[in-house]
Request: fold
Amino acid sequence: MLSATARRNAKEISALLHHRRRGGSFLLAQLSAAAPVVSDGDVVSGSSASSSSSVGRLSTFANNLQGRRNEAWKEEDVGPSSSSFSSSFPSSSSSLFEGGARRPSRRSRARDRNRDNTQRFFSTSAREESALKSRIESQIPDEIARLKQLKAKHGNEKVGEVTVNMVMGGMRGIVGMLYETSLLDANDGIRFRGLTIPELQEKLPGKRDREPIPEALLFLLLTNKVPTEEEVEALRVDLMGRAEKFAKECANDASKKNVFDVLRALPEETHPMTQLSAACLAMQNDSQFSKMYASGTMKKTEYWKYIYEDALDLIAKLPVVAAFIYKRSCVKEAARKSSEVPTVDASLDLAANFSQMMGFPSNECKELMRLYLTIHADHEGGNVSAHATHLVGSALSDPYLSFSAGLNGLAGPLHGLANQEVLKWLKEAQETLKGDYSAETVKTFVENTLKSGRVVPGYGHAVLRRTDPRYECQREFALKHLPDDEMFQLVSRLYEIVPDVLKATGKVQNPWPNVDAHSGVLLQHFGIKEENFYTVMFGVSRSIGCLSQLILSRAHGYAIERPKSVTSAWLEQKFQ
Ligand code: NMX
Ligand code: MLT
Reply:
């Protein structure tokens, strides 16, 4: 933490920098808030540096920076709205990066110097590149070349036909976007970089017991490579370090308003998903990508580096924020309610720590959390949450803005909120059936649900045409850990009855259960009984998939998304 004197000094430095350019205010934010203290390119942890030497370093740096800025401005004013990418990207109209070296112009050299200085203010992790980040960086040229070749060879070939039914039916079945991290097959189910869920359970290293840890999945999604034990551990340490730093800073620095103040200002009864999405937006001020973009010093080829930092920060922060929401707004028992920032145990894995922060430290519950956070992470790109994140991100909105949009979609009852609806429905069934789970009474209960105009929550899918493999692996978990749970027995009975009832309607394309039909039963068994929180857990997990792809989308230079829409009159005229 910088002392009060150091902060005051930082303010003065910023005032000095803040003439005629918005870059100055951006630097102020970094100077007054940042932990690292910078001198001639060395980063010293703010907490370990004495405040007087910090002030000296800041002043020296500011003087150098001011001198260099003046020099840069003499050459040409550079702003984010200027066509500042053209020198690095001769063919900037193309969606994928084009090659072609050019001698840097005077203007771009000036911008580079400016950028070098700006970048020194970013967190240690942004500068000391992790092995994962370096690996991603080393893969980018080949990936871009592969995509470029694909376009060059097959750019004008067709991948399908679009019918009026597809246009009018939620774009179902239209191949319309690139999404690398996972692929869904109607009959095989989901594959994460080619691996099924049982394969993940078998192959991903870093396991504490049987279930994979989400850190290993994140590595796989980002690199298309099964990590080693060491690689998983390095990523775990990185993420937990980010989580711990975030929680400690928010808990200890009363002088700065933070996301937890924003959440405390909301009524306790605000839906947890609304709180999570609002929290994402409240943290957007921390976006390194947005600050770099506003500084006008970032090249297009560097976007992904700051998206990466934001994405990993967000993945690390979300469980802390979610645990806070749970304790404050969801738990019924007053003794467990708390409006304190949760304490992160950085020696644990992300899922175990999440479970512990929520107040469930048992090994079984931690194991369930690992499974839960792994299997909900990704479901190719067309689902509402992934697509919304992808779409918003394509406008170069940062990960906080983009993922908040994804969460808003996840909060809908036909998508992620279905897990909440399932538990409500199961409780209703328990109350109505009073322990009589005979085939006839259960069938009547399901038919009555349809008659009342509701969908059967947890059943059906836009793409799948079989029982969701995510349902199957949760069922396996239940058979191992809670075979005698009464609600699990009801869920098993429903699995025998519901598909036939849905088939009998003659319109449901997929009568089989999806992921949401099972998750709540497991959670309530271990004491997480507040179903209005379930979608938040889905969101914490989904960040892993959506944000992995967001990093890759910027790394590979994807285009802004802008499909064509038509009016119904346009369609009618076309077929007249
Ligand atoms: N219960 C009752 N009716 C259903 C169900 C269901 N579980 N599933 C589909 N239908 C209906 C659907 O409403 C539609 O009716 P209509 O023509 O009157 O509008 C008809 O069957 C055809 O729909 P489909 O083509 O089978 O399904 P679609 O791709 O449109 O929708 C879902 C997919 C998942 C939105 C739909 O199956 C559903 O509403 N399921 C229940 C909610 C749910 O479990 N959602 C979670 C999905 C997984 N996730 O986590 O996101
Ligand atoms: C998901 O996990 O996103 C859901 O199964 C919905 C979908 O894939 O459309």
In short: The chain has 25 helices and four strands. The CA atoms of residues 218 and 544 lie 6 Å apart.
